[in-house]
Design goal:
With 241 residues, the chain is α/β, with parallel strands linked by helices. It has nine helices and ten strands. The chain folds into two domains: 165 residues, P-loop containing nucleotide triphosphate hydrolases (Rossmann fold); 71 residues, no CATH class. It binds adenosine-5'-triphosphate and magnesium ion.
Length: 241
């Protein structure tokens, strides 16, 4: 579903934020992208979503090259960014309808899904309000609802659990699992290693721009009693101070 080939990113000619990244995420997988602050997770996600051009390398979405056929490639995913400060001048319902228009979600499915997801995440009664009046968690929930509307094959989320209450966190984890059980794909970054451990099929660990581990969770643990947190701290300790 998602392939990155020799992807590099340098900001303003400075040090490389992402180095020679090769990655393949298959349909039906929940892939967790972890790494310390500044490791290159958001940079990678922004390249996958077409928000940032790679300095070099190729990105394929469902076999379609993002650089040569960007619109066709982008139809394969929806995206929840790390900071929900977007379209604050719109009402919640206007934002959802805008997204549904972009992805050409027909009327009946649109109404049903808006009702289903906004009720689930308990923001249905706020849809007539301007997004600027939403709390951080409400904005996050609105973005998640918007990303669920088109039911695109690939669901990309950058630290989606930040600011979500426990019930919303549970619903989002269930949705991720259901999406993959139905053949969809989830790619998300998180610092919540317990959640990553719980729901991911595979994990990629990026440190200082380099993918240093990419494997199934049980293989990363390799039969040891160490938690994912212990393994993370051990593998990334060179980057300290
Ligand atoms: N707009 C930018 N201009 C210059 N450098 C940037 C920019 N955005 C990110 N960087 C640099 O790229 C590197 C990777 O940053 P990135 O935001 O991808 O990290 P991250 O893994 O998402 O971190 P976090 O866990 O804190 O969200 C860092 O060294 C950062 O300083
Ligand atoms: Mg980030």
């Amino acid at each position: 579903m998602l392939v990155l080939k020799d992807v590099n990113k340098t900001y303003d000619g400075k040090k490389m934020a992402v180095k020679e990244l090769n990655l393949k995420v298959n349909a039906g997988e929940i892939f967790g992208f972890i790494g310390p602050n500044g490791a290159g997770k958001t940079t990678t996600i922004k390249m996958i979503t077409g928000l940032l051009p790679p300095t070099s390398g190729r990105i394929l979405l469902n076999g379609i090259d993002l650089a040569t056929l960007p619109v066709e490639a982008k139809r394969n995913f929806t995206y929840v960014p790390d900071h929900p400060e977007i379209f604050t001048g719109l009402k919640g319902i206007e934002y959802l309808n805008f997204l549904a228009d972009m992805y050409e979600v027909p009327g009946r499915e649109r109404r049903n899904r808006i009702e289903k997801y906004t009720r689930l995440f308990a923001i249905d009664t706020a849809l007539g309000d301007l997004i600027q009046a939403y709390s951080h968690g409400m904005k996050q929930k609105l973005l998640i609802c918007g990303a669920l509307l088109p039911q695109a094959p690939l669901f990309i989320l950058d630290e989606p659990l930040v600011g979500l209450d426990p019930l919303a966190t549970k619903h989002l984890k269930d949705i991720m699992r259901e999406h993959c059980a139905a053949g969809g794909t989830v790619f998300f970054s998180s610092h919540l290693l317990a959640v990553v451990d719980e729901i991911c099929d595979r994990i990629g660990l990026i440190n200082q721009g380099e993918l240093i581990v990419c494997d199934r969770v049980e293989r990363i643990k390799n039969g040891s009693a160490h938690s994912l947190e212990d393994i993370f701290l051990e593998l990334t300790k060179d980057g300290e101070g």
